Amino acid sequence: MNSAVRRAVAAAAVVAALGVTTACGGSSETDDAKKPAASEKTSAPAKPAEEGAKTLTAAELEKAVVATGDVKGYKVEKVGKSDLPPAESVPAKPAACQPLADMFMFSTQPTAKDRVVRTLMATDELDPKVTSLALLAHDSADAAEVMKGLRKASKICTAYEHVDYKYSGVKERPAPDAGDEAVSYDVKGVIDGDKVPMTFTVVRSGSTVVAFYTMNMLDSSKTDVPQVIVAAQLAKLGKTV
């Protein structure tokens, strides 16, 4: 692995795995317009949350989350609970952006009953993208409320402050046609002076909120969450519930 890729992967992995908040610069850059793929949609009605949908236990979350071998071309690393950021929400300014600030830390309002987090990196050493994912256990109504908040915030927020850092470049993206409903958006960040755009995709499957985010320190135009990861995780979750 060349030094540039090693540096990018190492820095991104630390942020992705530990949920460390990074400063987001007020860049004037604009991303190239992306046409929605056939499997994507800019807006669609969510399936109503099924009352009584199973809320996964901690043990079931561990069973449902992907492991190395479940996603072709990726290795999966477990993030222990002691390494996770606090699940409790920390106020963001403006308050309308709170759902985005929370999700960066894989936390939600209402608070999840339990959560598991994994970091995925491609086995191809020349692929600098790092993806983190979390399974967040809720009851049906709370899961739907989380998605409602993210959808609204991704439409109206452009920048916010959280835990002494400033975030900008928030932009709604086409959401994948996955689960019962999905939301996707961009947030631009800075790590060690390098601009690092991140793409979030959050999917509700029953009462479970499945969150993904991908960062790429070498190519700002390629931060899409790999669909192979989304598909593999939702398929494994479906077998568990």
Automatic annotation (TrEMBL):
Q: Which UniProt keywords apply?
A: Signal
Sequence segments annotated as region (Disordered): 24-52
Q: Which residues form the signal peptide?
A: 1-25
Q: What is this protein called?
A: Lipoprotein
In which organism is this protein found?
Answer: Streptomyces aureus
